[in-house]
Amino acid sequence: MRLEPVAHPSLARRLGYPGGALVATVLLAMALAALAGADPFAVLGQIVVGAVGSKFAALETLNRATPLVFTGLAIAVAFRAKLWNIGAEAQLYAGAIMTVLLGTGALGGPLVLPLSALAAMAAGALVLLGPVVLKVRFGVDEVVTTLLFNFIMILFVGYLLEGPLKDPMGMGWPKSAALIPEARLPRIVDGLRLHWGFGVALIAAVAVWFVQTRTTLGFEMRAVGANPAAARFAGMPVRAVLLKTALISGGLAALGGWSEVAGVKGHLSADLSPGFGYTGIIVAMLAMLHPLGVVVAALFVAGVFVGSDAMSRAAQVPTYIADMLLASALLFMVLALMLARFRVVR
Amino acid sequence: MQELIDILLSASFWAAMVRIASPLIFATLGELICERAGVLNLGIEGIMVIGAFAGWIAVFWGMTLWGGVGVAFLAGATFGVVQGVLVVPLGLSQHVVGLGVTLLASSTAYFAYRLALPEVTSPPRIEPFQVWEVPVLSDIPLIGPSFFAQTPLTYAAFALLGVVAFVLYRTPLGLALRAAGENPAAVEAQGLSVTGLRMGAVIAGSGLMAVGGAFLTLSAFSSFFFEMVNGRGWVCIALVVFGGWRPGKAVLGALLFAGFDALQIRLQQTPVGAMVPYQVFLMMPYVLAITALVVMSRRAQVPAALMVPYNKGER
After folding, report:
1. Which of residues 207-236 of A touch B (CB under 8 A)?
2. What is the pLDDT of residue B148?
3. pLDDT tens readout for residues B83-140
């Protein structure tokens, strides 16, 4: 058995296989629901209604999608350059730390929000720069180093919350002091729970799309990812491109932390992210690494999470069904994308 | 300083080192087998979770402890099949598939746990493997209680090192396996199947990773907790690099790493250690793993065809 490239994949082929991946995910959802002793069709319906069935649910999905757009973009940018950034979780927390450092009284006035966003991006960029410098300088595989950084960062956050950043009024809870009102992201529409972090996420997606498709740096990033040897031969500074990619990717992930702290929580706690950094990998892959696709994929992934939470309160199906479905969707999708371009022959 | 010497002279420290190293040894050897055949298996973290769960639930439902180890192996091997099919014959990105398998395996374990025990708040305990003192040897001062008063699964981990080293370096199968990771075209020219060898390595290696996870529930903690694997799988990937893809050195690395882990727990309880935030101690193993990668990766003998999919007939 071997693989043969299809010269000109037809539109049906390019849409049919990814569509099949989604159908397979839905079928798996029904099978898991049946396994848990629930009615498969009812469970599907409850997930959809829970995700988009009411104004409250839809806004919740948009809110949940916001950090996923940021981490999804961070990973899409990095993976496109074949930079395996699995440390978006750490970069997100770095951004959250900076937001709290600047937003709890250190700065005041209207500039505190943009300044804390910039500081967050700088911190996230630095966190990813470390492993990438190790990669280009010593050839250390960045998959493992960025992964291990996640664990170091969570412990560091734990230390901060029990030490220097501990809220003196927090009744002993390991959380930081609350942000001052100027440091909070305002709501987009008064009375609705959606904050401006979502708007910033959309702007970021368009900005990344612009950089990737309309600038020299974007072209270099894609070239380095597609074929580093050819990029080097064409005179591209491969190392510098990787370092710049790291700065962008780390900065984007950190904005996710900024938006969660400034838009949703209002303070830092160790449970700020339920794995947004890891879920971002699924978002980026479902989006086929396309920055605008990331927005769509983040909405889909957030919908599955929010819908599954609502469903599992009604039916006896554990909420972990969401993680299972998304991990399977990821595997189905990479398989489908390959099958769309290759033919399996004997 | 005196406290450090006291720790290093206590049998409990050395015993803890060997105990902490045991799950790492299983999983590191499992990963090493995969990588020597040319496949980076990032599913390791999730496969350890499913192994920890499957072994534990099997024993909880009445199987023997060794039966639980077998169930864990089979659960890991099952996810090894998923990983293997996607990256070996189909040649998909080993990074993406590995991370996907980790997410799938760990969420499957959590889903199944909630399905099996919907109402419990604290996980029920099982009767874990008991310490088995090796006759005569365990009577040696310091060394006896350190190394020869362990659970059977620990002895199995060290026996596995012998088996893996023997198979890899002393059998035709091992030669073919290593060649599949270095020069797959040469293996094919010998009339052997690269796909078959790599699939076998990924399936067997994944089974061993799962046994490493099962050590946590069947020998160390006797219950299944969420997040109990806690990055051990990723550490094992670093250990394979640290060991230069050689089983003996990788196990030495696991012991070194475990020794460091056992040391930091004890240092926390000393008067000096109590002044340092405990999170700093908990970070040390991860920092050590990164340092080891930096130091070793410059002169590491990476299998030449690691992460390179093999497509028959393609040049």
Report:
1. none
2. 85
3. 999 999 999 999 999 999 999 999 999 999 999 988 777 888 888 888 888 887 877 8
For chain B, say whether A5 makes contact (Cβ under 8 Å).
no
Closest by Cα among A299, A297, A253, A292 to A276: A253
Residue A346 touches chain B, beta carbons under 8 Å: no
Element (H, E) at B150: strand B149-150
- Higher-pLDDT residue of B6 and B90 is B90
pLDDT at A250 over 60: yes
**CA-based nearest distance A223→chain B, Å:** 18
Distance between CA A210 and CA A199 in Å, rounded? 17
Residues of A in contact with B279 (CB under 8 A): 155-156, 158-159, 162
Q: Helix or strand or coil: residue B40?
A: coil
Q: Which of B92, B111, B235 minimises the CB distance to A334?
A: B92
Token pair of A20 as six digits: 């099949």
- Copy the structure tokens of residue A248: 């962008």
Name residue, tokens 């960045």: A142
**What percent of chain A has pLDDT above 70?**
100
Could you tell me the residue ranges of all domains in chain A?
74-287
Q: What Rg value do the Cα atoms of chain B yield, rounded?
A: 20
pLDDT digits (tens, 9 = 90+) for B213-262: 999 999 988 889 888 898 899 999 999 988 889 999 999 999 999 998 88
Residues of B within 8 A of A134 (CB-CB) are 290, 293-294
Burial class of residue A203, CB neighbours in 10 A (0-12, 13-18, 19+): exposed
Collapsing DSSP to helix, strand or coil, B132 comes out as: strand
Backbone torsions φ then ψ of A187, nearest 5 degrees: -80, 150
Confidence of residue B142 (pLDDT cuts 50, 70, 90): confident
- With 90 as the cut, is the pLDDT of residue A202 above it? yes
Query: Which of A145, A159, A344 has its CB closest to that of B290?
Result: A145
In this prediction, residues A303-321 reach a mean pLDDT of: 91
Identify all chain B residues contacting A338, using CB atoms and an 8 Å cutoff: 90-92
Q: Does A318 touch chain B (CB under 8 A)?
A: yes
HEC string of A130-179 equals: HHHHHHHHHCCCHHHHHHHHHHHHHHHHHHHHHCCCECCCCCCCCEECCC
Which among A87, A28, A145 has a CA at the least distance from the CA of A275? A87
- Model pTM score: 0.93
**All structural domains of chain B with their residue ranges:** 2-116+154-297
* Structural contact between residues A131 and A87, judged by C-beta atoms closer than 8 angstroms: yes
The radius of gyration computed from the CA coordinates of chain A, to the nearest angstrom, equals: 21
The pLDDT confidence band at residue B300, using thresholds 50, 70 and 90, is: low
Q: In this predicted model, what pLDDT tens digit does every residue of A329-338 receive, in sequence order? A: 999 999 999 9
| Amino acid residing at B115 | L
Residue whose C-alpha is closest to residue B133's, from B117, B148, B122, B113: B148
Task: Give the Cα separation of B2 and B8 in Å (integer).
Answer: 10
CATH of B2-116+154-297 among 3.40.50, 1.10.10, 1.10.3470, 2.70.98: 1.10.3470
Partner-chain residue, chosen from B96, B115, B286, that has the shortest CB–CB distance to A334: B96
Determine contact, residues B290/B238, Cβ cutoff 8 Å. yes
Nearest to B178 by CA among B39, B299, B293, B79: B39
Residue B305 in contact with residue B183, Cβ under 8 Å?
A: yes
| Distance in angstroms (rounded) separating the CA atoms of residues A312 and A293 | 28
- pLDDT over 60 (residue B44): yes
Pairing of strands B149-150, A342-345: unpaired
